[in-house]
Write a structure and sequence with these properties.
heterodimer, A: 160 residues, Arp2/3 complex 21 kDa subunit ARPC3, globular, B: 131 residues, Ferric Hydroxamate Uptake Protein, Chain A, domain 1, five-stranded mixed beta sheet, three-stranded antiparallel beta sheet, 2 helices, 34% strand, elongated
Chain lengths: 160, 131
């Protein structure tokens, strides 16, 4: 779990040169599917703390907003999409999670940066589309092979 | 099913490309016109150049203060802008050129219009100028 959390953190930092293109939502959905809500929520929390400290964005309002926005993913995956295993349906779920994340983050952004609502919403649309489309594509192409790989890896590991 | 996934994947790539184009496309806010302001040093090296969108009635000094650092006015004269600083002995001063011609008015009253090129140039004071 620790290694998977590091992978979640590292992939995002390594892909930072491409705005809003990463495998964060793919990995969060994968972890939630494989490990369930409690463990994936723990991994996401640790990832978020790493990310906030590394990026220098650790603040009560901003980080709490991000935590709530990210927690939507394991929450939805472990409830609404619990029985969904089709990668196309999960890709749509990932795109939905991307939009929800961006929309939830509007509030802390407005609070912290004093950004007006409508101009921010308009300017954010291409970034929302990027996150949604890249998450959709990542899940569609990589969810099945990654899940198989992860399950195989877990079978070879001694259970603690 | 596989074909369906391929089609969705292609659509996602198109959306990513479209979003990138939207982000990369320079956004110009609407206004009544644009002027280009250039700040140059004694060697006529450009220190900063900026296209500024203005609305009718905007004062030139206000536009400079909004778009450049270290803008200082004194008695209607532009004393400092960016790294240009008028020395106390006035051996150098910031001269104003509009569309390549030295301006006949100070910065506070200088008229400007859409497309004008304003240059703020550090100049050595020549006591024999015009003699």
């Amino acid at each position: 779990m620790a290694m998977l959390t590091v992978i979640l953190f590292l992939q995002e930092e390594l892909m930072n040169f491409l705005p809003n293109i990463n495998f964060t939502i793919l990995l969060m959905i994968l972890y939630a599917k494989v490990f369930g809500f409690a463990k994936s929520a723990m991994m996401i929390t640790v990832y978020l703390l790493f990310d906030a400290i590394y990026m220098g964005s650790l603040s009560p309002i901003w980080t709490t907003g991000q935590w709530i926005a990210w927690m939507v993913i394991p929450l939805l995956v472990c409830t609404v999409f619990k029985k969904t295993e089709d990668s196309l349906k999960l890709a749509f779920a990932g795109a939905l999670c991307a939009f929800l994340y961006c929309w939830i983050m509007i509030l802390p952004t407005m609070w912290v940066l004093h950004t007006p609502f409508i101009p921010y919403l308009m300017a954010d649309i291409p970034f929302e589309l990027l996150l949604a489309a890249s998450s959709f594509l990542g899940i569609l192409l990589l969810y099945d092979p990654l899940k198989k790989m992860l399950q195989k890896l877990m079978q070879t590991q001694p259970q603690s | 099913m596989k074909n369906k996934k391929v089609l969705w994947a292609i659509l996602a790539v198109i959306v990513i490309a479209a979003a990138y184009i939207l982000i990369a496309k320079p956004f110009t806010p609407k206004g009544d016109g644009t002027i280009t302001v250039t700040v140059t040093d004694l060697d006529q090296k450009v220190l900063k150049e900026k296209k500024i969108v203005f609305n009718t009635g905007d004062k030139l000094v206000d536009l400079l203060q909004k778009n450049f650092d270290n803008v200082k006015m004194d008695n209607g004269m532009l004393m400092n802008i960016e790294s240009l600083v008028t020395p106390a002995d006035w051996s150098q001063f910031i001269s104003i050129y509009i569309n390549g011609e030295m301006a006949m008015e100070g910065i506070e009253t200088l008229p400007y219009k859409d497309g004008d090129k304003l240059e703020l140039r550090m100049t050595v004071y020549d006591p024999n100028y015009g003699k």
